[in-house]
Design a protein that fits this description.
The structure is a homodimer. By secondary structure, the first copy, chain A, is α+β, with helices and mostly antiparallel strands. Chain A has 5 helices and 12 strands. At the A-B interface, strand 3, strand 4, strand 5, strand 6 and strand 7 of A face strand 3, strand 4, strand 5, strand 6 and strand 7 of B.
Chain lengths: 193, 193
């Protein structure tokens, strides 16, 4: 949920708010994006990294200049890269967050081809690329190496990552108060150990 | 100039199109942002780097869902970071583009405090931070180390970078056809020599 001046609230259409099966962690936010943004705010503030969400790209059709630059006609555009990037431990970091309500798997259908291509390019350039995947049913988040998902995406077999695979190949991200998601600890474990 | 589906064109209000004093280079674009975007498209395509413009942040006040997600009320927000970031030669890269019509200097008044803070943080994290500064009168672009501008910004003296300082402390960016601005050559010279 993004708060705007004047107390208005705008809910980005891409993120569906759903109460998870087990919402036992009182301090967890309403959705994955909130949790990551709050975690980045905290991590950036203490100087552990510098990671930001890319703004949602908007296609602007009409601007009314009569009262300042006021956008009166525009629509959402699909992000051609990923949601987050920045620097951590001197390395370029790039990742995408995805959640699933399914008990069994994350379908890869909602990962765009250009995002896969982008993350493959990040790896080629020597950056760290991963996904943060939330299985809402289990109230669990995993860090999954982008290469694992790229391989699956490009294979002719099944087009999903099962919960068992997330458990086996991913690293579970611990929750806390500040940050809500201790995802950099999982990054340490995956890329720096 | 951003092209939208249906042939509509939208000119971002922050970039003022002005014909430069010497517009001798036939293939130069209409403005600095265009030139950098086209250069990044080219560099990304040949795999020399992976650098993108961050989308302009928009504050959305009202969305009409009756005909898809259609934004009917929104306004521009100031970028809290910089315009461009990505990865080059394995390093995190972050920069801002500024142009000036002045013959004598780039006033620092149009660089925001949070951008200075952001670039200082990039340097702390071990990233490469710089400005691409265009002196329109001379039709010249310079790569200037962010640290140089941060120092000036924080000093109590004059609040500008003179053309002579750009010549002395900056690296002139050569123009071409593809890419229009060979700015990575200047990055090589400044950070990798």
């Amino acid at each position: 949920m993004i708060k705007y001046p004047g107390g208005k609230e705008y809910k980005a259409p891409k993120t569906k708010v759903t109460l998870s099966h087990k919402s036992s962690l009182a301090n967890r936010g309403m959705n994955l994006e909130d949790d990551i943004n709050q975690s980045n705010d905290y991590y950036n503030e203490i100087g552990r990294c510098l990671i930001y969400k890319r703004p949602t790209p908007i296609n602007i059709v009409k601007v009314d200049y009569s009262k300042g630059a006021h956008i009166v006609d525009a629509y959402f555009e699909k992000q051609s890269t990923t949601d987050y990037n920045g620097i951590y431990r001197g390395k370029y970091v790039d990742f995408e967050a995805k959640n699933t309500k399914s008990k069994t798997s994350l379908p890869l259908a909602n990962i765009h081809k250009h995002q896969i291509k982008h993350l493959a390019n990040v790896i080629k350039q020597g950056g760290l690329a991963f996904f943060i995947v939330e299985f809402q049913y289990y109230n669990q988040c995993f860090l999954i190496d982008a290469q694992f998902i790229i391989n699956r995406y490009e294979s002719k077999e099944k087009k999903s990552i099962s919960y068992e695979e997330a458990l086996k190949h991913g690293i579970e991200i611990k929750s806390g108060f500040r940050p809500r998601l201790l995802y950099l600890d999982a990054v340490d474990q995956m890329f720096f150990n």
